[in-house]
Amino acid sequence: MGIVAANDSLLAPAPGQIQKGEMAGYLLVPNERVPVTFNAGFSMYVAAWPLLDRYPGQRFQTGLFGTWMFAQKEVPSSIKLYSDVEGGLGWWRDTEFATETPKFIMGGVAPNFREWANGPGAGKGRDWDKPNGKYGVAQLTPWLLWPPDGLNLKQGTCGELFGYGYLPLPLTPAKTNTAGTDIPTGDQSWTLFLNTGNFKGPVAFFTPYFWSGSVVAEPQFQGMLLDSRPANPNRALQMETQHIPSIQANDAKGETYARVAPTCFPGGTNGESRLVHHLASYNRQALWDPVKAWFDGGAEASGVIRSDAAILHVFTGKGGATWRIYPDGTAKEEKDPVAWNSFATPMAADAHTFGYRWDLNVVKQTDSQHGSLVELPEYFRLVPNGKRSQWVPVRTEDVPAETGLTHARFDRPQRKPKAYVTPDDPASCWKKPGPKAGPFKARLGDGSVVTYYWYRFADQPALLNADLTEQEREALQKRVEKLHRSWRKDRDYLPPPAVGKLAELDPALIVTPPPGLEVGHVPIATRQEAEG
Hints:
By secondary structure, the protein is mostly beta strands. The chain has a domain at 18-240 and 274-315 and 430-530. The protein contains four helices and 35 strands. The strands form six sheets. Strands 3, 5, 8, 9, 14, 18, 19, 23, 24, 25, 30 and 31 form a twelve-stranded antiparallel beta sheet that branches. Strands 4, 13, 15, 16, 17, 21, 22, 26 and 27 form a nine-stranded antiparallel beta sheet that branches. It is globular, with a radius of gyration of 24 Å. It starts with a strand and ends with a strand.
């Protein structure tokens, strides 16, 4: 029997016939534009599910449905600048403790990928001598632990809605100087809010210095980044897939067939999958204005994001797909498309819910260990289509035996994950002034163990590397203590969904501060490793 294994080797009945490759591309979700005044963040609900029935190894990289939040531009610029907040649910090549259940990362990108920040203590690379964004996100909540490998969902999540969004909070004032230069830093701390079945509210935020620190190195970006600029509310909404394993081979007639790793979408009623719900954009009155007034001595802000200061994007019911199947090393112009519309039709279940209607003669509805799923075609034949060939689904029994494709398997790899570690130098920001309590351990559903400590909020490593004076950190500490006393984890902040069931986070990530540290302290992960 042929095997596609962790080392990407393939043993097939006909050696040399089978080529390894991938299926990759985008699923596009058009939505109507909204006024540019709704530029103070967004939220949405996206389905979370196991895209593949078996995790196939670290070449596998795909997001589920997500978006890209860029700064709003005043005028078109000739300067090459790519900087945004993306991330979302998915699997990545540097995911160490991967399972079939997706994880969530924050995905802040400094100009032109100079560095990136995926969450507290998580960024580009592993070398703490070159942090590259690993100090770019500060922990805000005292009730949720963030693992450096990504925020875990409850194992077995299958089609439930994961609610998240980013809105700015006025946690620190704007500054005219940054890192000893005349570069200014804005006052926007873009904050991740979640709405799940077992946690609700703000989690963590990009420090303004994550953005402005790049400007110190490259001054041409001054005033263009998210520390000071509003967000563009008209964002792309897509599912970006970079690698799903595939193999292909020719039959005796020279026709080409392909097989992809079993790929699934959430099952639903009447052959439909509902995948994105309530994509909303907000203006400043939704959260910024009441919180700013509170911090300035006014009435307490509840933290509830005002739905009357929001606008829901309308789904058109249309959609596109650029998925292609091709062997390794194929030039871009030679990658042939999948005939996506032969089995999937985009639809708007209502004006604010996007999904697909499936052709049940081509896809299969299954009840797996994960739940109800729609299994996409596994086999394809390359068929001429005008100037360009396309991959058309075929039944298993129509795949010629001599291709060897039906004998192959896409197996879960066997590898030992690498541990995430943090600096242990007694003089480092992790040790001085250091934590107030710990160590503690959390055993997660992905088979990893996270070691964490409780730090005073203003003394967490990210804030010691955020270009803040001690006085500025103390003022920030006082503001966050207000939030900790008032904003709890068990009430809605984001407007709740109108349909569906909420996904849950891994229960092991829900934590309780030690006695005496309930206010003004946060859990910070210092290590993540395989259990045992």
